[in-house]
Amino acid sequence: MYRIGPDDADERAPLVVKMSFPAGWATAAHTHTDDYTEIILAGEITVGRTTYGPGDVRVAHGGTGYGPLRAGPDGCEAILIFKSGDGLAKPLRASDAN
């Protein structure tokens, strides 16, 4: 995890995270308070009905519901870049996701 800016304790600073999702990992539909960009490095992840693989870029706008998310059979490695470090995930009802 790396915060962008002069003060790495500033929770509002942009945040970069490298994530490794194991094979078959899944999470329910949710949203984030801020925008974020996800760059797939290896493996694949399915978001709703769309599957993303190496080199794909996904942009999620704050407040937009999506999911569920499922890692592929080889898992998924991705870089996530959050507009701010307090863009925490909030669960949604399945009917709210795309």
From TrEMBL:
InterPro entries: RmlC-like_jellyroll, RmlC_Cupin_sf. This is Unannotated protein.
